[in-house]
Amino acid sequence: MKQKPKYFYRIFLPFVLVGTLVMILFNGFAYFFTKDSFEEKITLEKQENVVQTMNTLEQKLQALDYTFNSYVHDTPFKSYISQPLTAKNFDTYQTIDKQLNYISSFGPSQTTVDLVSLKGNWKISKHGLQQLTETQKEQITSKYLSLPHSSTWLKADDSNSEIQLVKQTPFYQTNKNGVLIINIPLKSLTNLIYKQSESSPIFIYSQDGTLLYQSNSSEEKAINEKTIASLINGNHNQTGVLNVDTNGENKYKVAYSKSGYNGWIYLSKIKDSEFSQAMKPTIIGTILMSIFMLTVTVIIAYVSSEYFSKPIRDLQKFIPKIQKNGYKDEFELIGKSIREVLDKNQSLEHVVTNQHEQLKTLFMLNLFHGRMSETEIQEELRDFDYPDKWSYLYVLAIQFDSLENSDYTRKDKDVLLFSINQIVSEIIREDEQLTPTVIDSKTQATIFICENKDCDHHVLIINQYAEKIQRTVKEIFNLSISIGVSSPFEKLTESKQALAQGIESLKFRLKVGKESIIFYESVSTIFNNNQIKTYFPKILENQLFDAIKLGESKKAKESLHQLLADLFKNNTNPHELEVNIMRFLNDLISLMQVMGMDTLIIEDHKTLYNAISEMKTSEEIEMFVKNKIVYPMIDAISERTDSQNKSISEKIIHIIQNEYDTEISLEIIASRLHYNKNYLSSIFKKEFKQSFSEYLALYRYDMAKIWLKETNMSVREISEKLQYKNSQNFIRYFRKIEGTTPGKYRDLHRDESFSV
Q1: What totals of helices (H) and strands (E) does the chain contain, helices first?
Q2: In this model, does residue 596 exceed pLDDT 70?
Q3: pTM of this prediction?
Q4: Which residues does 68 contact at the CB level (< 8 Å), separation at least 6?
């Protein structure tokens, strides 16, 4: 036989190994699952056998027990159990004997009954009527009447061949004078045992752990004592299976069932040899199946290796023409050659794909800039495999609403636009779009294709796509975008005008706000109106400027919001709105110059007008005017006003402290300082939260308390010195503030002044 090449064995051996491994795993799992199934089946059969045996025996024993219970409670039994019985009373004896024989027939075969009357001094058994001797009476009393219960199952001490049911009479009385002894031969129980117990011996134990019965094999060892004790004293179920630890000997399990009638425990051993014997046919079958499967695997592996190695033999005929030295085997040579071919092919595909996408983008840019004729467009559509039939076309122009207060800067704008470009290409179906394109640093545009002629249907579909694009951009970048939609057109040569319409419609964001979807057709009538209105809320502007001059920040904010809201409401055309906003900015700058404030500095060195013109929404413009112009002006004016007011207030306080004992008033101070009286009053109240007269009166009150404590001036002199025309007025004012008269105040504080 011709020797096979290396690659044959590299194919053949894995086939054999995999097949062998699968066979081993399959047969192994099958064996273990079958083993568990057999064990479970045998265990279940043992349990059922034990339960069946217990039920069969208990049925006989309970029938016998209940029949004798009825018998000992009968009135005739109670009458003759306490009476003497001799040969003269043969009729009575015969009646009792028949009754006992009849009742014993309810039990297992060969069941006999002994009836003993200690009071009547007689015993009836299978041997007939006997009179009791004193010795017999003592034995019966010690053996049977000493039992703790009136009805007791026990195994005869003098025999291993029978069990006894002992009933003391009278049944429900403390003083017992009779015994009913039911003798059941153990061999009679064998006939009642379930047939399967012939191969699985049954063990019966009493409540105290005594072995009552063992079926079939007398050579079989009894159950482990620890196991019996565990079943008697432990917390086990009524039926179940228990593992038996035999201290190094062969371990086994026992299936058990506890009797609810007399507390006996029925058991049967489950040996490992039974499992092995049951599994023997399965093991033989598994081995034979493994041999067969291994043979089949080898045959299949050989045939398959021959089949799969044929292409390698064919490749070998070609590859050596290129190179064959320096490689350890044919696979390495073939793999190296194929990888080189694939790498070159992939590189070529990558170059072609990139150029293809770049050419598509160039085609779209030429379309949007109006640089292509109808003939050129048709050729490009065929080359790029674009749809060439449609009912209408739309241009979707997308712009960011604002990058302010976001995690991005203006430098990120180009990257963000290209990301949106990719999102649009993925969301809009391929047959409903031409390649999405970034037009410039502000706008991304897409030509949307509609095959349906129903324009209302177009609006619905475009709205759905636009909303999905907005949601996706919001979820990914947390940025808001607006989308302008052109009027429908039919020829791609109109793409330039359609793009202009989409961008123009986005100017309407000044009216509708951010995250807008604006169709040019819905606003075209407003754009086409060439009349510019001259509406401007001059009254509101004057109110705003007055609030700024007075430094009233809250009022200025309200006036600004009201003015801008009025501007946006009454200027329906974005061009009108832009003109009037510029007018408002001019007025603001003029006010700044009048108030001697510096010119505003805008980031990126833009002019104020350029910054406003780039804003897309009314909210953005309002926030810019508030934060960059109005609020700084208010802060500057408030700072100036506060400084000036503080200086004036300090002058008034100085005059009060030096001239409080003269006839001074706010009119006199206003004349002296050359200010309006009302102006000084408002400044003083704003600074000290109280009026000039209240401050003066309280200062004079404090001086009065000092004079009362430290001088001997009379109350009248003090009131005159403090410019009170009537001393009673001074006393009433003092009592109102202090709660006591000036005289009493002086008396209360005289000791204090002396101590000082």
Answers
A1: 26, 16
A2: no
A3: 0.39
A4: 103, 113, 165, 167, 180, 182
